[in-house]
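Hi all, posting the design record for the shared folder.

TITLE: backbone redesign
STEP: 1 of 1
STRUCTURE INPUT:
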């Protein structure tokens, strides 16, 4: 019978150790999630600030943009680019978002 009680004691200790490890892993995961959430919040704040700064500069559809197309400088209105992009690509595209006035973002 002493062997059975020793086995029981080892099993209990093993169970407790596993529970402690599970709790430790859960805490570590939560810390990582909290750190990621904080980083995302900081990035969102930075984007909001950048958007406010860009809006303050005044981006409008009649702005003239200077483009270097294969070494040739072209002047084009923002509205021309966004019209074409609206018709053929749509506002959901990265290109349209790049050329669109910031109030569309």
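Okay, here is what came back for every position:
SEQUENCE:
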């Amino acid at each position: 019978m002493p062997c059975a009680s020793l086995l029981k004691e080892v099993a209990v200790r093993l169970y407790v150790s596993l529970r402690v490890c599970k709790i430790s892993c859960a805490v570590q995961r939560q810390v990582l999630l909290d750190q990621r959430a904080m980083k995302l919040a900081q990035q969102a704040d930075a984007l909001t600030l950048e958007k406010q700064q860009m809006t303050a500069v005044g981006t409008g559809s009649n702005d003239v943009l200077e483009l270097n197309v294969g070494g040739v400088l072209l002047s084009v209105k923002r509205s021309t680019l966004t019209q074409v992009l609206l018709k053929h690509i749509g506002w959901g595209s990265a290109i349209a978002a790049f050329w669109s006035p910031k109030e569309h973002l």
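COMMENT: The first helix runs from residue 2 to 57.
Let me know if anyone wants the other runs.
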